[in-house]
Design goal:
By secondary structure, the protein is an all-beta fold. It is built from no helices and 20 strands. The chain is globular, with a radius of gyration of 17 Å.
Length: about 210
Amino acid sequence: LGNATVPTISHDGERVAVSLRSQNSKVSRLYLGNLNDSSMDIIDTKGLEPDNISWSKDGESLYFYAPVERASGIYKITLSSGNIQQLSKSGEHYLVEGDNNKLYVTRLNLNGIWLLDPESMQVTLVNNNLAAADFGAIYWQSGHLYYLRRNPNADEVRRILLDGSEDIVASFMPNSIRKFFGISKANEHSLIATLKLSNESDINSVQVY
């Protein structure tokens, strides 16, 4: 079909969303695939070029980053209606939806995780421990936010608890996890890590503590 970005699987495991640029086009388009019958449909994003796609918790919408002159940020598309809403416009690069409609974002070329208020488009810093190059190494699972924190001694997958404290759920040798989307959720007791174990990335299922 062409050049694709990182695909994202729906929470029910039945659909996949991906941004794809066909071989004869200079424009990326949003595709929605059905994993049961292998069908693939183009979703109209009204001229926006989607990247860094994620699913809403209810599976009815997609969030994506789109580069727009002086207003790059996160957009939300409702799949049933095709309605598109701009949620931010100050360089927010990736979004993860948590419980109680909380929206966590990372920002272009900035370390950290922020909480986004879509009404005001204002962001509040949660912490600055996530490296800018790891903007997609963050996910929500079973009531907690997980993210990758690197330090000289280890690559740590951390979980933010309800009281704001953190614990370490998995640890790897320093600089062993790939950049960008190096971790993602699997099930309640494991995660997927893309590790630098060979010349090519090796994808591993890792038990969490």
